[in-house]
Amino acid sequence: MFTSEKGVVEEWLSEFKTLPETSLSNYATNLKDKSSLVSSLYKVIQEPQSELLEPVCHQLFEFYRSGEEQLLRFTLQFLPELIWCYLAVSASRNVHSSGCIEALLLGVYNLEIVDKQGHSKVLSFTIPSLSKPSVYHEPSSIGSMALTESALSQHGLSKVVYSGPHPQREMLTAQNRFEVLTFLLLCYNAALTYMPSVSLQSLCQICSRICVCGYPRQHVRKYKGISSRIPVSSGFMVQMLTGIYFAFYNGEWDLAQKALDDIIYRAQLELYPEPLLVANAIKASLPHGPMKSNKEGTRCIQVEITPTSSRISRNAVTSMSIRGHRWKRHEQPDNNNDTTELGILVIPEISVTNVAGERTGNGEKGRTLGEIDAQHIQGVQETATDPRTESKSLPEIRRQKSVRKMMEDGINSPGRVQF
């Protein structure tokens, strides 16, 4: 660590101690623009034997519990590097040199598991249902399924997952270590959109180091320093994948790709199903090339939204379509001229009350069905003797046969009575 970098850190430590509370908000706003300070703090954290490590950890904790949102996020950006330093020191069994880092991690954890009134927090997450539209899908775009949208919604698939309450911890042990670290990564992932690029780079690098240290792939990655294997839990790896997935689409494609491959490598060795499922799902959903991202703009995960289709199908079955389909069954596959000429014929409408489609008076006797049919057939035959149609004898014969057959079917088939 250079003298100039050490001087920047010392100035930062002394400046905050003399800062009045009224200037805290302006100080927090201007702090994120000090890139030289951030890089110097990373170097202090990466040197466990540095004399500045303890006061730096103490001030980062003061930032976190100050209640100022900008100061809280300033501390959170160093969380991946702090976790890596703690795990590396724990693997080397030099626990005494990580005391201040462990205290900072425990302090952040104990602050996050309670609300402002000091009550334990219970985090909840609603698992999305395929029957409800989201930015990732439209139910109508899924296609024909055995379970329709209405059927899915009636099954009550809205499942809520709860996390907590979490117990207070006074020290990190082998039993509770990854319970605490997994929760800390969850808090970090909740603020991913506010994290600078240097923090995302640190996250991808420490994920790769944690997964390959002590394994043959460490020589491929050319990681030096610690060569001991660092134990990890399944939930911890899933939280790492959440941050890596965000880094893919926010300017860190190469580092995120390397970290994803290393996590899959380690999950296969450990036979962890959850990280393998999430990692392979991320890998399958990635585009073929790096995504272009504006590092200075708003960070977000880019998704393709399917166009919203009409809820009512154009081929919906209605009473009119059923009625039209019923008449289509009577038509014969004649040529276009015959079809046009058939349009001038009077097709009788059969009703339950009367075959002519009109009700008779109270004193009028209804005529028999045979008489009405005979009159209609006679009218068709008289039409065929029209001079205009004498030259078209063959089509007229087919037409008479078609109408006669239609009338016979209508008289003899009770299933074709129109209501």
TrEMBL record:
Pfam families from the UniProt entry: Hyccin
Location relative to the cell: Cell membrane; Cytoplasm, Cytosol
Superkingdom of origin organism: Eukaryota
Any single biological process term in GO: phosphatidylinositol phosphate biosynthetic process
Transmembrane segments: none
Entry's Gene Ontology cellular component terms: cytosol; plasma membrane
Keywords: Cell membrane, Cytoplasm, Membrane
Family named by the database record: Belongs to the Hyccin family.
Name of the molecule in the record: Hyccin PI4KA lipid kinase complex subunit 1
Organism in which the protein naturally occurs: Cebus imitator
